Amino acid sequence: MTSDTHAPCTTVEAARLLGLAVRSVQSMVDRGELDAWKTPGGHRRISRASIDRWLTARSAPAAPPTPGAQVLLIDDSVHYQNLVSLLVRERFPDLQLRTATDGITGLAMYGALRPDLLIVDILLPGIDGAALITALRSQPQFAQSRLVVLTGLDEAQRKPYEFALQGVPVVHKPRLVLDLPPLLQALLPAPAAAIVS
Fold first, then answer.
1. What pLDDT does 67 receive?
2. Which CATH class is domain 67-187?
3. Strand duo 117-121 + 96-100: pairing
């Protein structure tokens, strides 16, 4: 490889590598999650090594690929992460489930994994689920993924987020065990979604 792979990146280049919006990358720099500095002209330069570290830390572990579809769950509740994980293990053993606990990490993982299905909570730290969905919809590769919203909010409480929920299946957390498996069955490719009888 040439030394270009070690050269610092502009914010736009970093956004492309991470599969994120420029604004998300700027937030990551502000939070110290990426190493960056400013040129004498005032332009941001981001360390390529810190981008690589971010992607490595948040990508799937290096394991032989399996034929199952990939699902990314973005939810800050460990309880619901564990519940979804249990449901997937028991009902959809071929699925590969990855989890993120906040919107910024979720966006980075989405860019790295390009999952078949994205399950997003509305209320997330850093960037809420509605803003995350809006950011992803601006990315051409998002057209390849299916989307499910998972929330503890009732219908009235969801009103402020309606702009992002148009045409998206919503699973109310109290009904997760009943409603999520049939949705996974309907939304995922047939071999991955075959429920074990």
1. 52
2. alpha beta
3. unpaired
Q: In what order do the strands lie in the sheet with 146-151?
A: 96-100, 70-74, 117-121, 146-151, 170-172
Residue 7, pLDDT score: 83
> Cα 116 to the chain's mean position, in Å?
11
- Other Cβ atoms closer than 10 A to 190: 7
Which band of pLDDT confidence, cut at 50, 70 and 90, is reported for residue 99? very high
Q: Can you give the residue ranges of every domain in the chain?
A: 3-57, 67-187
Return the higher-pLDDT residue of 144 and 106: 106
Side-chain half-sphere CA neighbours of 48 within 13 A: 8
Higher-confidence position of 110 and 67: 110
The pLDDT mean for the chain works out to 79
Q: Are strands 44-46 and 36-38 parallel, antiparallel or unpaired?
A: antiparallel
The CATH class of the 3-57 domain is mainly alpha
